[in-house]
Amino acid sequence: MRRVMHGYIRAVDAVNYRIGRIAMYGIFVLMGILLWSSISKAFFLPSLWTLEMAQFVMVGYYILGGPYSLQLGSNVRMDLLYGEWSIRKKAWFDLFTVLMLIFYLCVLLYGAVSSTAYSLGYWGTEPFSYLGGVVIGTEEIGRMERASTSWRPYLWPIKGVMVIGFFLMLLQCTSELCKDILRIKGETI
Questions:
Q1: Nearest to 49 by CA among 62, 64, 66, 32
Q2: Which of 39, 77, 105, 153 has the most CB atoms in a 10 Å sphere around its CB?
Q3: pLDDT tens-digit profile of 13-40?
Q4: How many CB atoms lie within 10 A of CB 102?
Q5: What does residue 184 show for φ and ψ, rounded to 5 degrees?
Q6: pTM value?
Q7: What DSSP letter does each residue of 93-121 carry, written as one string?
Q8: b vs e for 46-69, b when ≥16 Cβ sit within 10 Å of the residue's Cβ?
């Protein structure tokens, strides 16, 4: 079992490390969009797409970088008591908090999947109505969701990024859970 946990930790950490390193460059994309927004407002007609595109890039940057941040341990902690605890006591506390985070991420992932299904034109009540290729509920295909602004972009791409980001964060949390279990058993990671 320990070998499986170590393999899972290595695989998830490697995927999130690479995606996180790529997502770091999203800040430069964001800066480019905001620079173009400033230039176009000062010298040309203002671009309609810059504000929303900057928001979309920021969402991708934040959500895809979250698992990488969690992996590095760069999330904010209250170090008043935690810093003085032993590694094993920290692992017990982290195990409890990561279980709460996993529950929260499952709720977020469910909502993100249903919202993405809605934005792709599925107007049913359950996004997971297909089980093994069998239709459980009724399906109604509508038109794809667009933003209500003057630019009117489709919303499914950013909602898809949110689904991927929440899923990667869930994988990283289970990796952290495995690390905590191994630390409690006295292993070094």
A1: 32
A2: 105
A3: 999 999 999 999 999 999 999 999 999 9
A4: 15
A5: -65, -35
A6: 0.85
A7: HHHHHHHHHHHHHHHHHHHHHHHHHHHTT
A8: eeebbebbbebbbbbbebbbbbbb
